[in-house]
Amino acid sequence: MVIIIKNWTTGETSNCRLAVVRGCVAENSWPIVSENDDIVVTYGTTVGLWPVHNGHFKAVVELERGVNDVRFKYKEEQVLLTLRLVVHSTELCVVPLYVVCDGHDGRFQAPEGTDNSLDSACRRIALGAHLVQSLYAEKLLEKGLPRKTFQVENDLDPGSPTCRVLHSQLTMSEARKLKQEDLWEFIGREIMTSPIASEKRKYLAILSCTFWDGTRVVADPALGGGGLALLGSGTLHTWPESLSQLIHCFTDQRKMPPGLLDNSCFRGTFAGCLSTSLGSVCHEVGHMFNLGHTPTGIMSRGFDNVERVFLSVPSPQVKGCAKVDDTNNLILVPCLSISSSTLPTVGKPERASCPASETSEDDFTSFTSACAAILAHHKWFNNETSETSTVTYDPIRNLVSSEAGLKVVQLRGSSGSVIKSWELGSKSPHKHLILPRLKVPHATLVAINSFGSILSQQI
C-alpha cells in the first residue's frame, strides 16, 4: 500500500495560503476501495482528518510563509510533502470586507443559536476569500498553466485585519430598497472615499443586512466588476469559520427552513447553499479580474459544485445551462432539480489507475482556457514589474496591437458575454491581430498582453 500525492510534488512553491492536496491510497497501482476511512494530515501543531472515498482523498492545508512539512498517514503508511509559501512581490491585493449599514448591528440572518455576530461574519468571509484564492490557483493548473492566484491583503501584510469592516452611511432600510446596481455604485463610492481606498486594492465585500422575509429577498446583490465584488449575506451562516468546520459545512444535509434564504440551486440544504454562494463569489471575483460571461464554466452557471474542489466525498452534479439570446445577452437558465436516480454510485466503482501525478479532474468546476489565460497574465496574479506596454486599437484598420505581444483578445456583447475569443500562443510574440468585421451592436473589445496590460473599449 502506498500514498500517492497527485497534484503537488515535494518542494513546490505556492503563493496561496490554502493548499488543496489531492491524492489516493493505492495498492498495486490501483486505488483501494474504502467507504469511511480518514487520512491523518499533520502540519505544524495542526492535525486534521480528511475522508478517503474509494481510495481518493483531498485535504486543505493552511500554509505558513516559508517551508511547510505536511505529513499524510493512512493506517501504517506515511508520506511527507514539503511545500513553500512565497507571496508575490506586489502591492496588488484583494481586501475581504464586511459592509455594515448605518443603524445595523452587523448581525447577519441566521438560524437561532448560530453565531451571527460581526466577528463571526469576518471569520467566515476571511476563510471564504482564501478558499476562492485556492480555487483559482487549482483551476489555472488544470489548464496547464502555472499554479498562481491573487494575493489577499493579509498575505502581504500579516499585521492587517483578515477581514476589514466598512461602516456605511447607507441605512439598512435604504439598502433594502435599492437595486443591486445602485448598491454596488454607492458602496464603491464609499470605499474609494474611505481610509482603505487604494488603486492597488480590489474589494470582496459582503453586505450585512441581506434579509429573506419568507417570500422575497432584499439587499442581496451579486455584482462584480472594476475594483469591487459585492454580494449579500443571506447564506453566510452556512460558511465555515475555520478549516476544522470545512468538511461539516460542505456535507451538511440539513434542510434549509422556510424562514431562511435557500440559494442552493434547488438542493434545499445548508451544504448546497454554501457551494452555490461560494461559487457565486468565484463568479463575481472573475468579473473583477476582467473575465466576461462564457457559455460554460465558472463564468456561466458552472459554479454550484465547488464543494467537489475541496472534498473527495461524493455529491451529485448540479447542472445549469447558459444561453445567449439574439442580442448576445447571456441567459442563465434555472438549474435542474436532482432526482435520486441521478445520484452517483457510492458502492464499488469501476476502478481507474492512480497515476503518480495528475493536475486535473472532473469536479464540475472550471474556467474556459481563455479565462485561464487572462488570469495567468493578469497583473494581480503576478509579481509586479516595472516593464510596461500598452494595448491599442486602430478602428480604421480594425487592428489590435501591443509590442509586448497579445495573449487574449475578445469581443463581448452588451451583457459582457464572450462572442468571439482569440488565444495567442507563447512561442513567438503576436504583436498584431486584425479583427473580422462582425455586425455586433455595442460590442466591447477586451485584450490583454504579456505584461498584463488590458484594453477594454467599446467598438
TrEMBL record:
InterPro entries (UniProt xref): Metalloproteinase_M10B, Unchr_Zn-peptidase-like
Q: Pfam families given for it?
A: Metallopep
Q: Which domain of life is it from?
A: Eukaryota
The protein, known as:
Zinc metalloproteinase C607.06c
